[in-house]
Design brief:
heterotrimer, A alpha/beta, B alpha/beta, C mainly alpha, A: alpha/beta, seven-stranded mixed beta sheet, 19 strands, globular, B: alpha/beta, 12 helices
């Protein structure tokens, strides 16, 4: 692939501690790469290191179109959207043009070039509103429009949907997807939500404790974790050791596939109910087993109470074997 | 930081150089004098004439006689116009001063409330001060090492009294402020007649004309012995001019129109009443 | 009470009759205090910004010093500057004592801590990530800082006005380093004190009112310029 942005031996440390270490990473033009990880994993750090933003103690190289790039080139090529939309005083239209203005573009031309992006993100009708009166979702759209207006070769998005309600998030996701589809821009999306990764990214990297543990096509990464941390990250939170499963390797399954009182092939694990939590459409049942407490789904909660003996069944197809060595695997 | 600011401002010469910087080449001398010469307005009358006559511009710094003499000691002023004979003689005895010439005099007056609770009206001044101390009537002093304050202290000494709280109060301020405090508290105070004429504050003159109440002004030249930046030619020019005919005439006329009597009596060339 | 009324009447008559002396005093007041505020802004604003944005050792101590400096008695500053500038002092050769320049210096010293403390507060109000986001849009360090200043421009203007207010109304330093010399270093505050000591209360109040009008006029101009 032709790498639009990449890094080699990128390391970031602070106060003597190493926060991030990425030997190699590339994102192609037109591609969206999601960086998924738990809080504190270093996702924002990676983003900032790639964009040479903030005061980071950084070693290693960042590459643009295959060549090592200095801070000035990076600054010109990149546009970033941070977690909180930081807008300036003034109107929405003024803010959307701010990215271009900061790069020295004249006021009239900046307005002209940024206006279509407000429409693309569905907020063209808010152009003359004061930025301080916007809702969270609207403000974030302005921030994204502002970034896209500079026609960046690389777009860095740091958890852009954080703090938005479900409907707003869904709408923004859809609009963002539409906008990004036609662009030549390489996009790096940092998130802790795998559904966002599914919706937007062709490839996903799992970042845990400053290291990329797994990198590959999104569907594969999200469904075939290579180690325990990755498994938990992508939702395989029920860990089943060999002692319980009778299999040679550690296995994991999603809670929604562990059914109490179900039948069919696969594993059957005895246990006692710890608690029953009705959650609207389905009921969650926590079951104490030899493998620890498993979060399971119940089809029919009648007659289940704490202490009741039950059997958890996990279909074969839902089990994932986990190699335990935790080494980086590019799948 | 002050150094940096000073250099920056001095370097740009500056819009803040002041509206009356004067033609270049004009010489300026520093005159240290007392608040009574400034408050009476005499300086406003004399200084422009001096500048016109001699070409020396003057920066008059009006502080108390004590502070003025101290400035002379340190060479921070070029010439002094003060009225504190004891302190002046001490300063001259130190050896760094130039000529000391008599300029003018007026007198001090003992002021108090019209109803005179201590009953001092018309008495000789030392008797009056004793009476005030005995009755513990409120006496307001300037307490600021000025010429007036020094005279007041020597009068207490001659009366054989050591004044103290609670009836003796020191304001640490100029004559005008001290007069007002005395008036507010219905107390007594010592003032020079010049200031009294311009601001009586409602007080009455109760003792006057006593020889101990003579208020004599001298001009004293500062020499380079006090400091290397002193300008002795300026000092000489001022001392000569103020004891000269024109200045003495102006002094003699000053205040006659407004107050019906002159505020000062010109004395240049006469025998010094404070000598001996 | 009639003293106050008399003062108002005198103020109006002095101003509108174009009394030369009053206008000269007013102009000098403006030049000295504006000059001092400008210097304080040039020196203090970068320091205030550095305190707000930086992370160097002693940062908080510096801020505490600035906050304390806001309470510096002008008389004390005047005394220190006098000692430095008088003939026997280290800077005596400059011959600056009893000149408007010395007054500008002393007032600049008084105004600088005000500027530092208030600029630091103004900049700290802006989102911590502001500069990073500006960088993320391609701004150079300089452009990012200018954007930050534009963002905080209202509290920054307030800082300047507070500094101006502090120095235009002070009398201790102006009296000491200026000497209140007629036609040369007399400003509205020292003129008011002199008038008071001469018992001319109406005139003193008149000067006070002119000072208020001056400060108001400056504030109006600056506020209008800031709102554009």
């Amino acid at each position: 692939m032709t790498s639009r942005i990449g890094c080699r031996e990128l390391r970031v440390s602070a106060r003597g501690r190493e926060l991030l270490r990425v030997p190699e990473l590339d994102v192609a033009a037109g591609e969206v790469l999601a960086v998924l990880g738990p809080n504190g994993a270093g996702k924002s750090t990676l983003l900032r290191a790639l964009g040479h933003l903030g005061h980071l103690h950084r070693t290693g190289d960042v590459l643009l179109d295959g060549r090592v790039a200095g801070p000035r080139e990076l600054r010109a090529a990149i546009a970033a959207v941070l977690q909180r939309p930081i807008l300036r005083r003034g109107t929405v239209a003024g803010n959307a043009a701010a990215g271009l203005r900061l790069r020295g573009v004249g006021r009239a031309e900046a307005r002209r070039r940024s206006a279509p992006w407000l429409d693309a993100l569905g907020i063209g009708h808010l152009a003359e509103r004061r930025a301080s009166t916007l809702s969270g979702g609207e403000a974030q759209r302005v921030a994204i429009a502002r970034a896209l207006a500079v026609a960046p070769r690389v777009l860095l998005l740091d958890e852009p949907f954080a703090g938005l309600d479900a409907t707003t998030r869904a709408d923004l996701l859809a609009d963002l997807r539409t906008v990004l589809d036609g662009l030549d821009t390489a996009t790096v999306l940092v998130t802790h939500d795998r559904h966002e990764a599914m919706a937007l990214a062709g490839r996903t990297a799992l970042l845990v404790a400053g290291r990329i543990r797994q990198l590959g096509p999104t569907a594969r990464v999200l469904d075939h974790p290579v180690d325990l941390d990755c498994a938990r990250l992508v939702g395989f939170t029920n860990v089943l050791p060999p002692a319980v499963t009778g299999r040679p390797r550690l296995a994991a399954a999603r809670p929604e596939h562990c059914v109490v009182g179900g039948d069919g092939d696969g594993l059957r694990i005895p246990g006692t109910v710890r608690r029953v939590v009705p959650l609207g459409a389905a009921t969650r049942v926590d079951v104490d087993t030899e493998a620890g407490t498993l979060a399971c789904r119940s089809v029919d909660a009648n007659g289940l109470g704490p202490g009741a003996p039950v059997t958890v069944s996990v279909p074969e197809a839902a089990l994932r074997p986990i190699p335990t060595n935790g080494a980086f695997v590019a799948t | 930081m002050v150094l940096a600011v000073v250099l920056a401002v001095a370097a740009c010469g500056g819009p803040a150089a002041g509206p009356a910087a004067g033609p270049s080449g004009e010489r300026t001398l520093i005159l240290a004098t007392t608040t009574s010469t400034q408050d009476s307005g005499l300086l406003d009358e004399l200084l422009p004439a001096f500048t016109e006559a001699t070409g020396w511009a003057v920066k008059p710094v009006a502080v108390g006689s004590g502070q003025a003499i101290e400035m002379g000691r340190r060479g921070e002023a070029d010439v002094l116009l003060v009225h504190s004979p004891a302190a002046e003689e001490e300063y001259v005895a130190e050896g760094t001063a130039g000529r000391r010439l008599l300029v003018m005099h007026n007198d001090f007056v003992l002021l108090g409330p019209e109803d005179d609770p201590a009953g001092v009206r018309g008495l000789p001044v030392d008797e009056a001060m004793r009476r005030i101390a005995e009755t513990q009537a409120v006496f307001v002093s300037r307490g600021d090492e000025s010429g007036t304050h020094s005279r007041e202290l020597s009068l207490w000494e001659e009366a054989g009294v050591t004044p103290g709280a609670p009836w003796y109060q020191e304001t640490g301020q100029g004559m005008g402020a001290t007069l007002r405090v005395a008036a507010e508290k219905g107390g007594y105070t010592l003032a020079d007649r010049g200031t009294y004429l311009t601001q009586s504050a409602g007080l009455a003159v109760l003792v006057e004309g006593d020889p101990g109440l003579l208020n004599v002004y001298h001009v004293i030249e500062v020499t380079e012995r006090a400091g290397e930046r002193v300008q002795p030619e300026g000092a000489a020019a001022f001392a000569d001019w103020i004891t000269g005919q024109d200045a003495q005439r102006r002094i003699g006329e000053f205040g006659r129109e407004t107050y019906g009597q002159p505020l000062f009596v010109p004395d240049a060339g006469k025998p010094d009443p404070t000598a001996g | 009470m009639d003293v106050l009324v008399d003062g108002v009447a005198q103020a109006l008559s002095l101003l509108f009759s174009g009394d030369q002396e009053t206008w000269a005093i007013t102009l000098l007041t403006l030049r000295v205090s504006l000059g001092a505020t400008l210097i304080a802004a040039l020196v203090g604003a970068p320091i205030g910004m550095a305190i707000a944005l930086g992370s160097f050792p002693g940062r908080r101590l510096l801020l505490a010093a600035a906050n304390t400096g806001m309470g510096l008695p002008p008389v004390v500053v005047g005394l220190v500057v006098t000692v430095l500038l008088w003939r026997s002092g280290p800077l005596g050769s400059l011959g600056l004592l009893y000149t408007p320049t010395a007054m500008v210096v002393a007032q600049a010293v008084i105004a600088t801590p005000v500027v530092v403390a208030l600029v630091a507060a103004a900049v700290q109000q802006v989102d911590r990530e502001f500069l990073v986001q500006m960088q993320g849009l391609g701004a150079t360090r300089l452009r990012a800082l200018l954007a930050l200043a534009a963002e905080a421009r209202l509290p920054l203007l307030a800082a300047a006005m507070a500094a101006f207010g502090a120095v235009v109304s002070e009398v201790g330093a102006a009296q000491m380093v200026g000497g209140n010399i007629a036609g040369q270093t007399r400003v509205l505050t020292t003129a008011a004190v002199l008038a008071t000591s001469r018992g001319e209360f109406g005139l003193a109040i008149a000067f006070g009112l002119v000072l208020l009008l001056l400060a108001f006029a400056v504030n109006v101009v600056v506020t209008l310029a800031g709102q554009r």
